[in-house]
Write a structure and sequence with these properties.
Oligomer: single chain
Number of strands: 29
Radius of gyration: 34 Å
Low-confidence stretches: 1-15, 17-21
Largest sheet: 6 strands, mixed
């Protein structure tokens, strides 16, 4: 009997213990779904000047999504992208709690230039906002608004040559330190207002400088310290700095791109074909398909290390090729597909491509500019 009494007493204790520990669990909170925000902007056009870089150029505002949480914890993702891409390459900004955000002209300009857009050209940009809880639940997207934005040119880190020309001189070059240098082979091609490019045969383990005026030593573009590792493949440069630029370790053909906007240059091995001469042949030309072609009438003039030019009378609706060697059909410069209409007035070409160039529709006198720095050509009626 005593044994059973002890068991009964223990059972009573256990029941009391679990009863004392039991808590009533209330209903879990239920949050109502939010609503997609309505987005608006302070302007539909942004075309700032460089002097206004630090000023606010665009302010975005949006409605409250009315999530059932503290509004200060709501997350917003602002996305900006070029129209027509469905935000596949968007630049984003994350905002917490606020129903507005602003962009300075500098902010927007950086986005536009990051896409490679040209200075002074207006582009249609799409903007939207995605709202959510802080943990990214309940994602809701706003309407898409369009703002036309124009990137502006920021001052380049290194002032480009006032001459609009650039030359290479030094022991790494064919002309050595002789100044003036041999032109046109040691002159760069002006790609745009702040970028120059050239293709040169460089002697390994030597040095060079860049000159804004051929034959003049008073100014140069150089580097601060030629011992910096990797500088023979590119880096920072400036005007009238202390050291020569170290050339590549190995002799060969190299493409040099000089970017005054960023204050940087690059040196890469050139694997393309840079002809010593260039000729045009085809039924669009006065000489027809006869090869060799009449010279000097159908021979291009080389104007710098990578650029050739020729003004010629063409017969409309016909075709042509560029030849590196007159009288030789073994190699040519042509296009992969001559059915593209735009190629009649310019585009890109390739070595030993399969199709003839399509000539302009109308007969007349045309100027050809052929650049091997980017394998491009233009055809302009005179």
């Amino acid at each position: 009997m005593k044994y059973f009494a002890k068991l009964s007493f223990l059972a009573v204790l256990l029941i009391g213990f679990f009863t004392a520990c039991e808590k009533k669990v209330g209903d879990l909170p239920y949050y109502q779904p939010g609503t997609a925000v309505t987005l608006s902007s302070s302007s539909s056009t942004v075309a700032a000047a460089p002097a206004d870089s630090s000023k606010v150029a665009l302010t975005l505002t949006w409605s409250n999504p009315k999530y059932s949480v503290d509004s200060s914890t709501v997350k917003y993702i602002v996305e900006i992208d070029s129209s027509g891409r469905n935000f596949s390459k968007s630049v984003s900004r994350i905002i917490s709690g606020s129903l507005t955000t602003s962009f300075t002209a500098k902010d927007l300009n950086a986005i536009l230039l990051g896409y490679g857009f040209s200075f002074g050209v207006a582009y249609d940009m799409d903007i939207r906002i995605t709202s959510s809880y802080a943990n990214n639940n309940e994602l809701l997207r706003s309407n898409v608004i369009k703002v036309k934005m124009t990137p502006y040119k920021i001052p380049p880190k290194v002032t480009p040559p006032a001459s609009g020309r650039l030359f290479i001189v030094g022991s790494a070059t064919a002309g050595g330190w002789n100044n003036p240098v041999p032109a046109p082979t040691q002159e760069f091609t002006k790609i745009d207002s702040v970028t120059y490019g050239g293709i040169f045969n460089l002697t390994g383990g030597n040095e060079y400088l860049l000159l804004p005026v051929n034959g003049d030593w008073s100014h140069k573009f150089s580097v601060a310290d030629k011992t910096v590792a990797g500088l023979n493949a590119g880096g920072s440069f400036g005007a009238d700095l202390n050291d020569n630029i170290p050339g590549p370790a190995t002799s060969g053909m190299y493409k040099i791109i000089v970017d005054f906007q960023a204050g940087k240059f690059t040196v890469t091995p050139y694997t393309g074909v840079l002809p010593a001469n260039l000729f045009i042949v085809g039924d669009a030309t006065p000489g027809g398909w006869n090869n060799p072609v009449p010279v000097p009438g159908q021979q291009f003039a080389q104007v710098n290390s990578t650029q050739f030019e020729l003004t010629l009378s063409l017969t409309g609706g016909k075709q042509y090729l560029f030849l590196p060697v007159n009288g030789d059909w073994s190699h040519k410069f042509a296009v992969p597909d001559n059915t593209i209409p735009s190629l009649k007035m310019g585009g890109n070409f390739a070595y030993d491509a399969s199709s003839n160039f399509p000539g302009p529709d109308a007969s007349g006198t045309y100027k050809f500019v052929v650049r091997f720095i980017d394998n491009s050509y233009t055809v302009t009626k005179q």
